[in-house]
Amino acid sequence: HLSEQIENSYAAAVSWAAQFATEPEREILAKSYADCKRALSSKDADEVGRQLSIIRRLGEAAYLRHPDAWEREFSHAASRASESSDIRRATQLVERGKDASRRGDRGALERVVRDLWSLNPVNRKEQALSHGSGLRSR
After folding, report:
1. What is the Cα–Cα distance from 122 to 111, expressed in whole angstroms?
2. Could you report the average pLDDT of every consecutive run of 10 residues in the chain (138 residues)?
3. Predicted model pTM
């Protein structure tokens, strides 16, 4: 299960990194993947989590450089506004985001998306990354 998460996260990150990451970022990605596999073999949960986090962040950073990324993220975040911790604020942000999108203001759209993200509930599945994997924490 955890091995599959590592492979899936790495595959997604490599896909985005090939198009939008810098060479140093691609090198860090490759090193983090190797370190993550090594940590998995030695059952070091903390290190697996740390390296998997690096892999995901590098992939996300590369993805967010895609020209349509913030529009996609806005659509997704807007569709989840009813799940937000502050629905009234989320609704206002969705309206601001629609306006920013109409104007083609990518910077404003990014700010709206980040604000919407801050209102989303915590993903408990992500927090339970190593649960049941046989890994141990230090």
Report:
1. 19
2. 95 97 97 98 96 97 96 96 93 98 97 94 46 43
3. 0.78
Whole-number average pLDDT of the chain: 89
Other beta carbons within 10 angstroms of residue 67's beta carbon come to: 8
Long-range contacts of 91-100 (CB under 8 A, 24+ apart): 93/119
Give the Cα separation of 80 and 122 in Å (integer).
Answer: 13
Q: DSSP alpha helices (H): ranges in the chain?
A: 2-20, 23-41, 45-63, 69-79, 87-103, 106-119, 124-127
Residues 6+ apart with CB under 8 A from 134: 43
CA angle 46/52/53 to nearest 5° reads 90
Of 126, 116, 104, 54, nearest to 79 by C-alpha is 116
Cα separation, 130 vs 132, in Å, equals 6
Distance between CA atoms of residues 44 and 48, nearest Å: 6
